[in-house]
Design brief:
By secondary structure, the chain is α+β, with helices and mostly antiparallel strands. It has two domains: 6-126, Roll (SH3 type barrels), CATH 2.30.30.230; 134-432, Fumarylacetoacetase-like, C-terminal domain (Fumarylacetoacetate hydrolase, domain 2). 18% of the residues lie in helices and 26% in strands. It contains eleven helices and 26 strands. Strands 6, 7, 8, 13, 14, 16, 17 and 22 form an eight-stranded mixed sheet that branches. The N and C termini lie far apart (53 Å).
Length: 444
């Protein structure tokens, strides 16, 4: 488990002035990773670390570092971060410490490191890892209950939910970085009162406010990961929007769960915040009074004492009209990861308990992170009670489900007294109209 060390000192300042602003996502106490290249220039994507409004080019900086930090920087300078992820926690920590010291006020490395910085305003990002496999979990009991009431009014929370972390295998190929724009999906639905299914564009488009968990070091096939070792296999976290077509989902999800309702697009933020950076924001993992304690393989004293993370999560809808008027996205939800019923370590442990092997770059998603009230709901289907109660955007527009042209914006950050605020940046995705055949028909 990542512990506090000199890199978390709230008194640290950087010679990169923008990193010292109180509202910066990327102060020197953060140092998240991404894969980038300068926009408009035909150059290779490569790994970098954020500091204020700038990026440290890891490959270029490697020659200025030594030992394990230099090895990690060289691995991180590749077109994906998989090689860096595979090196493990000691290498990640060594690189973080070396960069922290090099970027601090008064560092002798300033003169040689400053020319290697690239302005974030001048770059574009790629998915930061080659994602071999993607598993989406269901870790918010509030979301599970709210959705259950809509889909199964007589049995909203399945009896296994409080005992086993539920998940399904998602589609890695349709994961894209922030800025993703995708067409409204087509599929089968079974409208109320109809005699048979119909085919066409989904009408009940939704978002899902989630976090993504990148696997670092993997485990061998047949070798489970214990609960107290699970964090050593996690490289870091990102923001994630797992778009959902609720009308397609309602028709297809029984008996095997989501398929076409969710595999058409998932959007992730470009920056990966490491578990070490998140160490100051750990909180106890608790369950409501009377709920069962997890089975022994999912439980430990360390898990109970420090297993949860207090990550603030905000989601807004930016309609085409709001965008044209120059107005910001309308906030729909503000919640925290601390409300999750299952932690990231329990996700990793349960995923491997049967011997399943995880690999560097694999992505686990938390599932929709709804809190206990509707203003903390991470999906529009919850906020609007299945479309019955439209949400007002504040400019005369309302939404029951997403409309073409809507951009969903997710932001995340951590803050508390005695620690420096750190952020995740943002995750943006836009719903475009459905694609139709050359004849103009969406029917087959």
């Amino acid at each position: 488990m990542s512990l506090l060390n000199e890199t978390h000192d709230p008194q640290l300042k950087s010679w990169v002035a923008s990193a010292n602003a109180g509202d910066s996502n990327f102060p020197i106490q953060n140092l998240p990773f991404a894969v980038f290249r300068r926009r408009g220039i035909q150059e290779a994507f490569r790994g970098g670390v954020a500091i204020g409004d700038w990026i440290v080019d890891l490959g270029a900086a490697a020659s200025l570092l030594e030992g394990a930090a230099a090895e990690a920087a060289r691995a991180g300078g590749a077109s994906t971060l998989n090689a860096l992820m595979a090196l493990g926690p000691a290498a990640w920590s060594a690189l973080r410490l070396a960069l922290s010291r090099a970027l601090r006020e008064g560092s002798a490395r300033q003169a040689v490191l400053a020319p290697l910085l690239v302005a974030q305003a001048e770059v574009e990002y790629a998915v930061p890892a080659q994602i071999g496999d993607y598993t989406d979990f269901y870790t918010s009991i509030y979301h599970a209950t709210n959705i259950g009431r809509l889909f199964r009014p007589d049995n909203p929370l399945m009896p296994n939910y409080k005992w086993v972390p539920i998940g399904y295998h998602g589609r890695a190929s349709s994961i894209a970085v922030s800025g993703q724009a995708f067409s409204r999906p087509l599929g089968q639905t079974f409208p109320a009162g109809a005699e048979h299914p119909s085919f066409g564009p989904a009408q009940r488009m939704d978002y899902e406010l989630e976090l993504g968990v990148y696997i670092g070091t993997g485990n061998e096939l047949g070798s489970p990961v214990s609960i107290d070792d699970a964090e050593s296999h996690v490289f870091g976290l990102c923001l994630l929007n797992d778009w959902s077509a609720r009308d397609i989902q309602a028709w297809e999800y029984l008996p095997l769960g989501p398929f076409l309702a969710k595999n058409f697009a998932s959007t992730i933020s470009p920056w990966i915040v490491t578990l070490e950076a998140l160490a100051p924001f750990r909180v106890p993992f608790t369950r409501p009074e009377g709920d069962p304690r997890p089975l022994p393989y999912l439980d430990s004293a360390r898990q109970r004492e420090h297993g949860a993370l207090d990550i603030q999560l905000e989601l807004g809808i930016e309609s085409a009209q709001l965008r044209a008027d120059g107005k910001p996205a309308a906030r729909v939800a503000l919640t925290s990861y601390r409300h999750a019923y299952w932690t990231l370590t329990q996700m990793v442990t349960h995923h491997t308990v049967n011997g399943c092997n995880l690999q560097p770059g694999d992505l686990l998603a938390t599932g929709t992170l709804s809190g206990p009230t509707l203003d903390q709901a991470g999906a529009l289907i919850e906020t609007t009670s299945g479309g019955k109660n439209p949400f007002a955007l504040g400019n005369g527009e309302t939404r029951t489900f997403l409309e073409d042209g809507d951009t969903v914006v997710i932001r995340g950050w951590c803050e508390k007294a005695g620690a420096t605020r750190i952020g995740f940046g943002e995750c943006r995705g836009t719903l475009l109209p459905a694609r139709v055949s050359s004849s103009g028909s969406d029917r087959v």
